[in-house]
Amino acid sequence: MIRRLYKLFPNKSVIVRLTVLHVFRALLEGILLGVLVPILNCLLQPQPDFQSIKIWLIIGGIGFLCYLVLTVISSPIGFGASMKLAEQLRNDVMNRVTRLPLGWFTSDKKAKLARIITADTGLIAQLAVTIGAPAIIAVLVPSTIIVVTFFINWKIAVLFLAVMPVALVVLRWTGNIAAEAAIKLEEAATNIAGKAIELGQAQTVLRAAGKGTEGTVQLQQTLDKHRIVYRKGLKRSTLPDLTYTGVVIAGFVAVILSVTFLFIHQSVSIPEAIVLFILAVRFLEPLAYLIELNGALRAMDNAINRVQELLQTPTLPMAKYPVTDIKNASIQIENITFAYGQNPVIENVSFHCPQGSTTALIGASGSGKTTLIRLIARFYDVNNGAIKIGGTDIRQLDYNTMMNDIAIIFQDVYLFDTTIKENLLIAKPDATEAELKEAATAAQLDEMLERLPNGWNTKTGESGLQLSGGERQRVSIARAFLKKARIILIDEAASALDPENEQAISKAIANIASDKNRTVIIIAHRPATIQSANQVIVLDKGKVVENGSPQDLLNQNGHYAKFLQQHQQRKEWKVEG
Amino acid sequence: MSLKSTDKHQNSPNHTADSTKLMSTKALTRLLSPVKNYLIAGCILAFLGSALGLAPYIAIAEIAKLIFKNPDTSSQTIWLWVGIGIVGAFLRLVLLFFSSRVGHVADAEILHKIRVRIVRHLGTMPLGWFRAKGSGVIKKVMTTDLEEMHQLIAHSLREMIGAVTAIAVSIGYLWVVNWQMTLISVAVLLTMYVSFRIAMRSVTTHMNRLINAETKISTSAVEYADGITVVKTFGVGGRLLSRFDNAVKEHTNAFKIWVSETQYSSAISRMFASEVTLLGVLTITGLGFISNGTLTVPDFLPFLIVGIGLPTAIVPAIHGSQGLRKGRLSASNIETVLLQDVIPESNNSQEPQEYSVAFHKVSFAYSENNDVIKDISFECPQGTVTALVGRSGSGKSTLTHLLPRFYDVRQGSITIGGIDIRQMSSEKLLGSMSLVFQDIVLLRDTVRENIRIANPDATDEDIIKATKSAYIHEVIEQLPQGYDTVLGTGNIGLSGGEQQRLTIARAMLSDAPIVVLDEATASLDPDNEVLVQRALSSLVKNKTVIMIAHRLYTISNAHQIIVLQEGTIAEKGTHQQLLNNQSLYATMWEAQVIQC
Ligand SMILES: Nc1ncnc2c1ncn2[C@@H]1O[C@H](COP(=O)(O)OP(=O)(O)OP(=O)(O)O)[C@@H](O)[C@H]1O
Ligand SMILES: Nc1ncnc2c1ncn2[C@@H]1O[C@H](COP(=O)(O)OP(=O)(O)OP(=O)(O)O)[C@@H](O)[C@H]1O
Ligand SMILES: [Mg+2]
Ligand SMILES: [Mg+2]
Question: pTM above 0.80?
Fold first, then answer.
């Protein structure tokens, strides 16, 4: 554990310095206790020898002063190291998270992340510096006392020497048992956190089902499971804790018995016996205290494990010498295959989007359209084949460079819990007022900015839920417009908009697409949009079944023609009372 | 988990303002009252255990005194003291064991109870709360706060009792031996305590600052993960990460300020809390008192054996008191949630005889002075289709959220079969309607349970029938574990259209007399839309339907179309009537025709 902790530490020299300081403090504490021995020896004579005591007192006094100085200077160093460590760990964790593939972000992982980023990192930082000192003291002070005892009575010293390893072994054993229980408890607690978040988000569904007050079956099970795990964990951890206390008490009893025995059989003198008693008490007290530290050590060990596990989650591999220059905005899909799990959802797909072209992707629900967009943005890596932007494999491109050139309008809109303005600025932090206005107008935000009492500063609420469906969608469109990227990927924009807004936004998209330097891929449902594209790709069960200009495809009388027919058909459907 | 540390008393809340302290103490007592007896028993056991725990120390001190005073003390007397020490040590072990068991039993009991209470309560709170405060508060209460309570029940309380007992008994014993020396020891402890209080004087402000920063860290991290696609596209390293960075910096700064403010007082309190200090002080004063005759040599010995150990008990005492404080804070957090207003339920609930729906002069606002729905009245006779149309943001979804009482109206009323929905039990109310909403919510559960939630009594055949009519059955069959596939874990996901069809299957399963559809087919491709539309046709047959649709052609046959504009009804009528009006609806229709 110490090694792993050391690895996590950002500034190694601080921790080394701190440790050295504490070792000195612990040794001094032991030595000061040792000075008590000659003092007592002089004092416990029939005629106390105050003269010799004075010398020892002076020696002790100097040691004592050193000790105080060490105590005072070690504290700011400790706090400083703790702060640095917490900050560093949190940044490390977040940096890692940014580079993880999309598949990692499930609700339970997010719950875990929330715990790690606050509780675990905080705990490690705090404990790394706070239990270091007591742990060192609790081990070194008894050790020095053993050495001192050897000068008085080797038999008792041997007894001490025997007690210490036994205690440490038992401590380790209890620690292992309790650690297991703690890991189980932690898992159950993380589950509960995940479920709790879901409970809040799913209230609508739960209530509609009349389950608002009991939660889902799974939540109930999680709660019950937590209780069981909890009970078991507690049962398992109390026994080892008490066993340790028992061992220390047994040591205590053994020492009392032996010293008494030796004294009664006159193997030790009266002053010796008394000194031995005092040393025994001082020897056993720090040992007993170790069990209290054990809990904290355990907690820290588990926290380190969790942080490390996250820091070692494989990221999307990054090129060693990434290309930081994108020649042009063409997109080349070369025979790619991809599966989320076992079954491929994209199979042997190839097509080419020259710079400045607009490509319409169509296909049945579940045919892989959104997946394709995710692959182009490298949210996942393809299993086979390659995607090239400007002629370079995206796996060779510097991720940030690449993302600077891509804007996406998503099927599932996500807004951050801040204002409308801030949500736009995410796409372009240094955008001018004029740029903001332009994007807003194109995305039909003007009307709603005027209507909403706080305009640009309207709060969007958790994941944007304080806006209406269409408002949310328009903000996300404006966000993409603002970025002015060379490549724009659009997934069903405007699906939640009223006809007038929809029309206006289609126009805006057409406007953007007409830019000669811009490459657009759009998952479209409206014939008007599709007809104005340069090429149409028809996907079916992950394969390209048709590919060509809208006019050519219409003439082929295949999938595309059927798609248009169906579009006509659905217009004839009407809800009848 | 018990976290002990000698060196950083500073890093924990110590005392809150008196008034909140009082309140939170009450909150704590109220929350814990079901396990009161367990707790008292645990404390008594801890008290006895700690008192007896001193027996071996006192025994050693007494033996040392005896043999020094009288070298010829009979070995019997010595063995008697040895016996007392051993028996005391043994009893301590037994008592501590039981005390810990009792505490843990109480702990497991009460925490589960509180969790269940919170879940129950959340189910009765107005939905608005979830959208505003959201999952963050729930998560904190359900985990962090409850853990603090655990710490308190299972550890802090007994720890503190034990430590205080140990200190009191030790001081009592030492007082009997020599009161002057005891006074000196107490003075050292008091100095430590006072400097500790000084170090802790502004703890509330600092703690709040730290907690605030920590909350920000956690929300920004979770938000970052929730919106990871947006982050990757728009914000890598940019503005979004800086929200997180700032929160981290804020935390570090808050900590820095606190540390620099309390540097000296905390160093002093650490100094006085050390055994070495007490050792030094006791040795020097002891020798002084011996040389001037105030103290005899044998009476000095107990101070070296029992007295030096006093600080060992102080650290757990401080820890315990910190645990108590944190626990109190958490208790009041938990109570704040438990005391949130619930949606009022009427005592004598009524049941409608038929399922027509009517809005009577309804007004509603999300925030004060800003009505989103303004004085709206209309009727939907049983078995008819009412379409809500209007520009984005005109209040359509809001109107449909009022019907299941996700929010209560500010003015006016909504009735089902002539009965005010506030007079219906929530079970009956929600049971009478199928809801398909704009924001799709899937639970992290099996596909089967995700559908069955609409009708817990449904058989597997019912479920398959519903999924078949929502054209999602085949997709489900192809998932790795078919209907038993758990959604939202790792490699399992559904496409946008698939999710929408799953929620439609839910509605199909529930077969309630009222159907509310909010853009039920918005993210379907034409291929599927045609199929799902047919399914919807069977779903809405003979039901009272309220539906929101942007594709106006789908609702052109509705019995009535209500056109909303900024929260009021702009027009109302059939498709033909509205076209003839040549007003808002006609413009929208026009825009739509051009589109296709
Ligand atoms: N995160 C995911 N994990 C596992 N499988 C997924 C995931 N997302 C989608 N799938 C599966 O991959 C297939 C293709 O999904 P995709 O989202 O690409 O479809 P789509 O063409 O965009 O459909 P729609 O029009 O309904 O949005 C579907 O069968 C879907 O169930
Ligand atoms: N939870 C909320 N808190 C505060 N304001 C809200 C909330 N939900 C919606 N609003 C606001 O109330 C107004 C009406 O929203 P509503 O969702 O009813 O619109 P809508 O007609 O359904 O629009 P759309 O067609 O875009 O879905 C909007 O201006 C929206 O910003
Ligand atoms: Mg899709
Ligand atoms: Mg809406």
Answer: no
